Amino acid sequence: MSLQRTLSIIKPDAVKKNVIGQIYQRFEEGGLKIVAAKMKQLSQSEAEGFYAVHKDRPFFSDLVKFMTSGPVMIQVLEGDNAIAKNREIMGATNPKEAEAGTIRADFAESIDANAVHGSDAPETAAVEIAYFFSTVELT
Ligand code: RTP
Ligand code: MG
Questions:
Q1: How far apart are CA 117 and CA 119, in angstroms?
Q2: Of the residues 6, 15, 48, 63, which has the maximum number of CB atoms within 10 A of its CB?
Q3: pLDDT in tens, 97-138
Q4: How far, in whole angstroms, is CA 135 from its chain's centroid?
Q5: So where's the catalytic machinery, residue-wise (predicted)?
């Protein structure tokens, strides 16, 4: 077991559905602690920068448009193996393939509007946390 931090984003579709509290409950029940959080309307350049790894993918412009379509809720989650644990709680990228009881199975509409983001590795978690939170916002 290793104590990790990961970056989580509740995407505009789930914020619009008013299920932030229900999603936070999934994190807490899964043993993840919310150690920092902010609600934010992403600008186009903030969304493009966040998803820069996908800039050459065909879905990039739709992804940026979606991520800027309304406010998002951004949090840092901490716990044992938090990166993999969060992705387990989230479920598969495509909600049609997500296991029953996962966030995406229960709250997501489509592969585009899929409710949540979670970092996929320790290196990306560190970069993504620093992208949205300064050191004074993290204790
Ligand atoms: P995320 O980064 O948002 O946590 O999702 P993920 O790791 O499960 O998926 P990733 O491959 O990183 O893709 C980032 C987001 O791009 C959208 N996407 N659309 N139309 C498509 O084929 C497609 N593939 C990916 C999804 O919204 C995905 O969450
Ligand atoms: Mg990803």
A1: 7
A2: 6
A3: 999 999 999 999 999 999 999 999 999 999 999 999 999 999
A4: 20
A5: 117
